[in-house]
Amino acid sequence: MTQAYWLSGLKLDSDFPLPALARWEGPEDIVGDVAIRRGKVPSRLDRPDHVGPIFQTRGRNEYLLALPATGRIFLRNGNEITVDPETDADAHTISAILTGPIQAVLWHQRGLLPLQASGVMVGGGAVALCGPSASGKSTLAATLAARGCAVIADDLCLVEARESEAVSVLPGCARLRLWRDSLDRLCIGATALTRALTGQDVFFLDCGGPTPRAKSALGAVVVLFHGESGRVEFKRMRGALAVDTLYGMVHTRRPAGALGRGHDIFIAVKRLTSAGAPIWALRFPSDPSCLGEAAAHVLTATEG
Question: What is the reported pTM?
Fold first, then answer.
């Protein structure tokens, strides 16, 4: 059964359930901007430009991902996704791939900049909490949600950094994916929550309140690092350090480069760092007692 979802301002029609996304609430008769369909996907692209261990590309608009025990996924033109799952493929795994790396590649094809970040609203501006997996992005976003901040993205924060336009953030969903130990730090029970991945203690947490439907000005970027000193450190980054650090935070950077987007990404990152929104490095240990102090720094992040 096809279901409709809200994807950062687009209507997405999917043959697969995508619980990480918000349901479409607009008119039902509107034709979807993006379609995810079940169908046959070839094992190889016709005359590919790039062939890697798990993905192939041709030109700027064809991307084929092949994952053992999951299946093949073909993305074309930033709006057509065909999924050919293995017989015993796990539905939660397929959903996570479609809303994670496949969504990121889709945005690259559409000329936008997906960051590996969660997003929150602070003082009327969007703050991107960047970092690799297990850096604490979602946990910190949940801490800020408890302090009244609206969550607008989890793990993929979509930035628009076009020439002659203000840098802005497109809203995603107010649903976070949190491991059980993170929920324990936040004193949130997992009993009533929906499991996000089969066989793993990862759960969806709805942060409450409506997610903004319009894009917001970028107020700040905060890059998370694990601290070794035992204390929280919050420092401004500028110049080449800021550019290099944020370039490393671009989601699915290698596939995007194979699609010929490398130069566009670099230009977008430079626009982001020169747009006036401060870029911060936030180092904090995994000690739960430091979450409050880290959140307090984020609340001041837009004060450049």
Answer: 0.95
